Amino acid sequence: MKRWLLRRFLAIGVWGALAAAGPVAAQSPGGTQNDLVAMLHSVDATGQFDGSLCGSALVLSQSDGRTLLLTAKHVLAQLDEENDSRKLSGDPPVRLGAQFFGAVGTFHEVRPLPGVFSESLDYAVVEVIPRPGTTIAPPGSWNRLGALDGDDAQGDKPGYQDVRAVGYSRCRPWAASASPEKVIAVGGTDITFETRFVDHGSSGGALFAVDGRLVGMVVKTDGDEGTARSIDVILSDLALKNVRTDLTYGVSAAMDAAIRGQAVPTYASQVKATSVSARIERTGGKGVRFRADLDDLGAPAHELKLVGGPDDRDVKYGIDLDIADALTRSYQVRIGFSDGSSVTLPIDFKAPLTARIKALADSDVAWLYHRPGGAVVIGSPSYDVVGLVRYIDVGWSPDLMAHRAVFRYSGFEPPKLTGTAALNAVPENRVIVGPAGADRAWYRLTFADGSVTPPRALAFTPEDINLDRGQYGFARLLTTPEGVVFSYRYKQDDVGAFQTGGSMALSRPYGLSGDYTMQYDLDGKGFLEAGQDRLPWMNAPFKVRFVEKATGIATQVFSLPAPDSEAVGDDAPSTFPEVTCRRSTAREGAACWFRDFRAIGHVKTWRMSFVSEARLQNAALADLRPVWRSAEGRARIRECRNSYSPACLEWRRNLGGWWDAPAGATDFYYSVTMKDGRTLPAQRVSLAQ
Fold this sequence. Notes:
Helices cover 17% and strands 35% of the residues.
């Protein structure tokens, strides 16, 4: 006769005798599932958890003044491997410690019971050495074995079809599967069950039937399947080794009522909760996965269906929703029990999701990144948080954040932007160019639940601004009366900036996507085509428009103010200033000068000497910005750039870009530090050229 069937007959016989004698209070397992499971840790010399190993164990007995635990044999093997590795590296060994549910945080050392183990069944018994001055409380009840549920058990089919594992999964103490998991097979020594919960640290933990009784000890997991060793098999093997357990078999409350001819109370009638809470397992893109928290129901759930969505669906192993739906729709869960009863309760997805969003808002996730010269780029956050953000607004003052970006894969449709807002919209990972001299960028986040952060600043350090400028440095901004933002840079022409006046590289609005040709109107006489988005430099307001190449359709006309004349000084030379020294044939003496006077505007510190390198001293250079601002000044630069007339020589001396050598000097020494931070060490130029 099968052992489970024998236990059933024995239980019925006992209860039959008791029923004949008179009313008897119904028995129940007593205690909680957690008080039967101990957490195992590797501990250091001080007895504190060191984090290198974790596992689980079952409380086997507390007789004769000592506590015995049952765990998986491979947990002890892992401890041996850890200490072998530590021995090779010279680190001190670790020991195995245990903590109990009634005294969390108090660790007791454990040691294997010699000879009490089985390699084939993968179990071992360990003895607890209580910490001095402490006692170990027994479980609430030892009457915890068995899984029969009245007449539900037929033939070789066990009386449980759902189980729940409790253990140290992923080193989380007393972690339990959020809802019961299906039994796949029972045969020989093993119970195989579906699981998405069992993981490292679960070995040695408990497998409980739906009625709360202990049926197995978890030994391994393989993908979505877990394996537990039947507790019957282990206890039978321990009996052969003369190891006793205080655990005993009992009957369920339903079986008790059936034996005594009473109406069986349904599991649904025992539910006291008025709602079900949910916890987030993960987020990603536009979706979120929840788990229903069923631990406080007071009865073991058999099935779980979501009510309120497009269709009722089984959600026992996870509830997948769009973030937008989880925040806006109302849902219920229909909870079915193994006795056929069910209850429908509201479930709250919004609270945990808004809590996750608030935590994200308070976190240090980077949303903007520096680029050389003070520009910024809106980065792509990790996939698990991107769906929690609707968009980010960016600008260069807390009161005006003109640019809005929507992250890809967020699940949110791009904002329905039109006009100025659409033209200023920024694609993800696009560089946003700031105005020259900006020392910070401002941004504001709008999350999926509608919450908005206050303006935040990304401050630039001098190192950020003075990095190799590349294509982003020294940009300036122009804004139309409607608020559309353009960035521009002054560009030297190949033949020299001050012979033709140079040109302007004008960016198109960030939100204008497609293949367009830029056209410009400088004087109201009609639009001309701008090659490569370059147009002649001017000091007056102008207009631009963009013509789609495929259709020939032009955009609106954008009226832009006059550019800043100081932008002419932004196009710094890529090399250091060249110095020419020459002895005059028309007069005695020699002189040195900058070959290109534009270099004066880019020099921060100029040191020179006609004596020696050791005698280098700071020399003043003029500020060229007032010269650039006027047409007369630019004309003077063009005139004197290659002229040695007395008037030009005097003008150069006044600027500080021409130096007459004293009598007897043979060499000219100089060093230079540029405004962008580059430094040229001391140079020597012979005056004998």
